């Protein structure tokens, strides 16, 4: 016991020191970002912006910005030409060559500054922006600070039986310039997400923001630039560019990797353009997440989660559950409780959604309840659609197959777990799912059979807050991952390296008898194939006895060859 006491004391002291270090905040420099033009109230000196209708010609050299809720005009940004995009990428590439040599200490300081700013800034409604964008971004930064360097260091692997004298490892190097074309629904996180991974792994980043979120994206650019300047990063390491399809096409053709967040149709065009330069592609193309409720759940609690999950697909969130499957035994109770909650809710969504609703009603769907309009600003325009619960829906209806981007909760019933699995998998999308059951093993069993990239058990979208996990889907939801180890290393050139394990004491060399048996004797030795066969059996034989017998025969063959006199070669005289 006396032997263990000093070790226990040392371990306790070490743990205490680590705890105290965690309590001491790191020194993080403050940055000054000019936000005077952003904080000005546009109501007094702005006008209503009327976007051109489809089919009408619009300006292609300017990206017009307006506030969706009020249609108040905010200004414009230039729609960059292909030549201008190439110039931005060239500047980023030059800066990246310097940044690639930066230390992880410098990169972590950049993240700490962004963490300090992100935890105080917001964009949409306070609750939604804080939970869906600010918290997620802060969690990503924290994970990179805690674990990012570890996952970018060389990773040693097994060298196998035939290379025991070698050391095998994987090294991770920056790719160069990482491009991203991001959607409008998460303007803060969709900008910071690719920038954080790219810059921390030693890359430059060029982000093309959506034409519907250019105003906020360009403001976030000021924050990023100020943070990079504070840590002494080279100029032009990160760029935010604005424009339309032509701008995005030029970006894909110019960078070393492209990340795209958007629709499946545009994702296919991105892949086609990327195939011309054969760069890696990560596609996140949305989803039609299923929400399965078994009959043994705590119903009031699950109903609350279900309503919240449905309303996540509202306005500028658009990342919620869109297909609800409820066991037939609790279907009526589930619908009834959802109706009670939804009656008092109002959430905004995209325009023209009423047309889809009319089509659904014609095909037999029924409206169980619609929320009311309330808490709208006095200057709000006709940009809002109340939350709506639909019943009598089926998979022949568009609402169960296409992303709605609206606060609609379509509910179907199922008889068995097998039917729920079949319904959930009957979708061209495969991003996420949520499964609820009083028996956790049952919920896990159901989720394991769903063809999607993200699953939550007795919860919804919780995996996205775990930034150590990869995020992405399958089928029309895309491929590749961001977040986690997989997302971070996806921004890297992955290089396999083999080196001598005991250099310089043991070097790679081929003994002369073996050279004569197999490699350097022409014509090939009559024993060459026999030698190779014995070598394979020695290394990979099924049983120990087979390997030992082959080893004895192999050594015998080498000793016999070694005992033979070396062949004499003579030079012909001219």
From TrEMBL:
Keywords: Oxidoreductase, Signal. It comes from the Eukaryota. Pfam families: Aldedh. SUPFAM superfamilies: ALDH-like. The keyword Electron transport does not apply. Belongs to the aldehyde dehydrogenase family. Residues 1-30 form the signal peptide. The lineage of its organism: Eukaryota, Viridiplantae, Streptophyta, Embryophyta, Tracheophyta. GO terms for molecular function: oxidoreductase activity, acting on the aldehyde or oxo group of donors, NAD or NADP as acceptor. It comes from Eleusine coracana subsp. coracana. Gene3D superfamilies: Aldehyde Dehydrogenase, Chain A, domain 1 (3.40.605.10), Aldehyde Dehydrogenase, Chain A, domain 2 (3.40.309.10). This is Aldehyde dehydrogenase domain-containing protein. InterPro entries: Ald_DH/histidinol_DH, Ald_DH_C, Ald_DH_CS_CYS, Ald_DH_N, Aldehyde_DH_dom. The gene is gb22087. Residues 59-497 form the Aldehyde dehydrogenase domain.
């Amino acid at each position: 016991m006396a032997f263990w006491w000093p070790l226990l004391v040392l371990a306790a002291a070490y743990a205490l020191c680590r705890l105290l270090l965690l309590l001491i905040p790191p020194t993080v420099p403050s940055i000054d970002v000019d936000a005077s033009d952003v904080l000005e109230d546009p109501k007094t000196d702005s006008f209503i912006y009327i976007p051109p209708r489809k089919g009408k010609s619009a300006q292609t050299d300017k990206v017009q910005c307006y506030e969706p809720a009020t249609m108040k005009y905010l200004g414009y940004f230039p729609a960059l030409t292909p030549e201008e995009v190439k110039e931005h990428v060239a500047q980023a590439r030059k800066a990246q060559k310097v940044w690639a040599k930066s230390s992880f200490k410098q990169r972590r300081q950049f993240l700490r500054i962004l963490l300090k700013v992100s935890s105080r800034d917001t964009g949409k409604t306070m609750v939604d922006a804080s939970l869906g964008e600010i918290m997620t971004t802060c969690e990503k930064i924290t994970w990179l600070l805690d674990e990012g360097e570890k996952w970018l260091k060389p990773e040693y692997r097994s060298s196998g039986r035939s290379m025991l004298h070698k050391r095998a490892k994987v090294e991770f190097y920056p790719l160069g310039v990482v491009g991203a074309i991001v959607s409008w629904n998460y303007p803060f996180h969709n900008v910071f997400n690719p920038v954080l991974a790219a810059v921390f792994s030693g890359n430059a980043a060029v982000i093309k923001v959506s034409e519907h979120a250019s105003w906020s994206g360009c403001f976030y650019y000021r924050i990023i630039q100020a943070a990079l300047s504070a840590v002494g990063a080279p100029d032009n390491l990160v760029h935010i560019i604005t424009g339309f399809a032509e701008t995005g096409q030029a970006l894909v053709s110019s960078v070393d990797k492209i990340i795209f967040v958007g629709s499946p149709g545009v994702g296919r065009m991105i892949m086609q353009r990327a195939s011309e330069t054969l760069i890696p592609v990560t596609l996140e193309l949305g989803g039609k997440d299923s929400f399965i409720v078994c009959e043994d759940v705590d119903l009031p609690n699950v109903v609350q989660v279900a309503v919240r999950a449905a309303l996540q697909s509202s306005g500028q969130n658009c990342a919620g559950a869109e297909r609800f499957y409820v066991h037939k035994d609790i279907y009526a109770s589930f619908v009834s409780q959802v109706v009670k909650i939804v009656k008092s809710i109002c959430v905004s969504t995209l325009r023209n959604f009423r047309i889809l609703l009319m089509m659904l009603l014609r095909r037999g769907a029924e409206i169980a309840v619609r929320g009311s309009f309330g808490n709208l600003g006095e200057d709000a325009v006709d940009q809002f659609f109340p939350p709506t619960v639909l019943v009598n829906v089926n998979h022949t209806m568009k609402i169960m197959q296409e992303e709605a981007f609206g606060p609609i909760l379509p509910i179907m019933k199922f008889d068995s777990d097998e039917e729920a699995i079949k319904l959930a998998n009957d979708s061209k999308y495969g991003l996420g799912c949520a499964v609820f059951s009083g028996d956790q093993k049952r919920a896990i069993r159901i989720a394991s059979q769903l063809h999607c990239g993200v699953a939550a058990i007795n919860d919804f979208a919780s995996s996205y807050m775990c930034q150590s996990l990869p995020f992405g889907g399958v089928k029309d939801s895309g491929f590749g991952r961001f977040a986690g180890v997989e997302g971070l290393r996806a921004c890297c050139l992955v290089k396999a390296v083999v080196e001598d394990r005991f250099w310089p004491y043991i070097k790679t060399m081929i003994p002369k008898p073996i050279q004569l048996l197999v490699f350097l004797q022409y014509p090939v030795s009559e024993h060459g194939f026999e030698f190779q066969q014995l070598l394979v059996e020695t290394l990979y034989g099924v049983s120990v006895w087979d390997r030992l017998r082959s080893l004895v025969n192999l050594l015998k063959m080498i000793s016999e060859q070694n005992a033979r006199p070396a062949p004499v070669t003579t030079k012909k005289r001219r």
